[in-house]
Amino acid sequence: MNDLIGSRSADLALFARVVDAGGFTAAAKSADIPQTTISRRIAKLEDSLGARLLERTTRKVVVTEIGQRVYHHARRIIDEVEGAQTLADSMQDEPIGLIRISAPVVFGQHILRPALARFLSANPKVQVQLDLSGRRVDLVGDGFDTAIRVGPLEPSSLIKRRIMWANAAYFARADIACKVGAPEALANCDWLDARNEYTSVDWKLLHKDSLRECYKFTKKPRIASSDIETLISCAEAGLGVAVLPVFSAPPSLERVLPEYVSRRVEINALTASHKSITPAVRSFLDHLEEQAQSGEALPG
User: Fold this and answer.
1) What is the CB neighbour count within 10 angstroms for residue 237?
2) Which of 44, 74, 159, 183 has a CB 3.0–4.6 Å from the CB of 16, allowing a cystine?
3) Mean pLDDT of the chain
4) Distance between CA 216 and CA 156 in Å, rounded?
């Protein structure tokens, strides 16, 4: 039964095309179907309906009275199908539905959060589940649409999209920053380092434009913490120089040796596959990349 309906619907659409084109020749050309095939299928449709739809002469095709009525039904079928396709296309293009996002805390707080607020304001049909943590989620197993990763990536089948390049640099309270006028002075400061373990660390000074390594110093920091907010609080208290992502540094701290950076890292968004990128996810990543690279995601 379903095959019969599908076949008849296709023949009705072809019949309507013949009527709209004014004949078999024009319909065959517009549909890129042999004229003999169209003639055979219209004849089959007439047999199945038990009615003559077209009167054929050597010069033209004339639609019969019943053919006119069948044409109007066929036209409504075509319009409904085209309407359904238009609806499906619009829903595929329109950001809609839930986006599940995983991101590191610092990136989430300073880049993602303001960008996300703007995106949701502009897309009222989108909902977001946001996980900010230091854990590396399993995109598929944990049910996330995208995960933000900072730094080098391990080889995988995941789809990578670069969001931005980010610099880390050195920051301190103004009275301390002004005393670090030369690279060698950095080695004599108390260091506030962004890492979990307490061990000797290398602090490098890379030229901010060429990224050429100009200096390297090694010693144990006064504070080692993966929590950037802790480093910021200690730097604001005058406890030393902190290495921070530039986008996270507050106005209360000044850049130490501003012609240098500590490192430059790539920040990427990962998705499981191209098929998993819904219009909402794609639109969000477009927005995040645009705002991150323009600096508009930064507060103030």
Assistant:
1) 9
2) 74
3) 88
4) 33
Predicted TM-score (pTM) of the model is 0.64
CB 241 within 8 A of CB 189: yes
- Which one is predicted more confidently, 173 or 273? 173
Instruction: Quote the pLDDT of residue 299.
Output: 41
Grouping H, G, I as helix, E, B as strand and the rest as coil, residue 244 is: strand
| Distances 139 to 36, 51, 149, 269 between C-alpha atoms, Å | 54, 59, 12, 11
The pairs formed by 6-12 with CB atoms below 8 angstroms and a separation of 24 or more are: 8/45, 8/48, 9/77, 11/41, 11/42, 11/44, 11/45, 11/48, 12/45, 12/70, 12/73, 12/74, 12/77
Report the CATH architecture of 2-93. Orthogonal Bundle (1.10)
Q: Do 97-164+267-294 and 166-264 have matching folds? A: yes
Task: Give Cα separations from 212 to 13, 143, 259, 263, 269 (angstroms).
Answer: 68, 41, 12, 10, 27
Q: Which of 134, 108, 151, 110 is nearest to 264 (CA)?
A: 151
Q: Which numeric CATH code is attached to 166-264? A: 3.40.190.290
Amino acid, res. 245: P
Instruction: Tell me which H or E stretch contains 205.
Output: strand 201-207
CATH number assigned to the domain with residue range 97-164+267-294, chosen from the 4 options 3.40.190.150, 3.30.360.10, 3.90.1150.10, 3.40.190.10: 3.40.190.10
pLDDT digits (tens, 9 = 90+) for 218-238: 999 999 998 999 999 999 999
Query: Higher pLDDT residue, 83 or 163?
Result: 163
Token couple for 221: 């920091």
What are the DSSP E strand ranges found in 86-158? 97-103, 126-132, 146-150
